[in-house]
Amino acid sequence: MKHLLILFGLSALTTVISGKSHCHACFDSICYSKARIFQNYPISGQLAVDRVANVVYFHYEDTQPLDHTVAFDLHDIRFLNIPGIQFSFARAVDQATREAYIGGANGIYKYNPITNVTTHFALNNKTIWHMQFKDKIYYTIFMTKGLYTYEKKQSKPVVALKDYTIDDFIVDKRDDIYFMSNFTVYKLKKGENKVTIFSTIIYSLTTDINDNAYFIQRDTRGLYKIDYRTGRLTEVGAFGSGSPFRTVFDNFNNVIYYDGNSDELFYLTPNYGRCKVTDEGKGRKLKKKVSSYFDSDI
């Protein structure tokens, strides 16, 4: 518990009264303040959110070392231990049932937050590397090429991706698949068998509450999304500092992210200060800078 430091309290009222706001991130020209959820121990693997209850799932390893798969309730501000599984890397939530699917060294487990019970679900001889739930489970296997789906007790490969080593992937609102492989982002459009190169810039990938595709550039701290009219990336804004590594959206479409530099988990909420994002530096040294019309504390 001592490692959980929720620092809520920055609000729109603060901005209105004082004319000042902290601007730890700038998205769509709006300032966001960050609250620290977790620190001191490295977090590994995916973040996942139960958007009905606004609970974020993650894993950390302490100094013993012991593994802990846990959750944090963003509404009630409380820490939750997930029973029946310690180590995990992949995590995904069925938003309709609130059941969390947790991938570890012995396949996929299913956690029921209503009964607080974890049961083994599938694939007990596989180490699950990455997952997403979108009508069914999409998953990858550690040190294994390809992307797979699991539905009605059957596992099937996505044939077009069988030769790719996939480091990260998302399935968006159109059921298009974006994935990172060998320092390149590729796209597999729904119903097609041909993979196309989408970007040679390294991004981490995520989707929001409407399954819109988002891309985070860790080095420049830029946040981008797909413009579905053009199929191209458009800049949403930038994180003010650190190295945003894993990112998810909660039920208000606010960002929760893991800072790979500081090993801290943060929650961003809008304080409605105004801001802008500018580029500084040149070439490989290009960085995003957040400037606020109020006082900034980045």
TrEMBL record:
<dbReference type="InterPro" id="IPR015943">
    <property type="entry name" value="WD40/YVTN_repeat-like_dom_sf"/>
</dbReference>
<feature type="signal peptide">
    <location>
        <begin position="1"/>
        <end position="19"/>
    </location>
</feature>
<keyword id="KW-0732">Signal</keyword>
<protein>
    <recommendedName>
        <fullName>Ommochrome-binding protein-like</fullName>
    </recommendedName>
</protein>
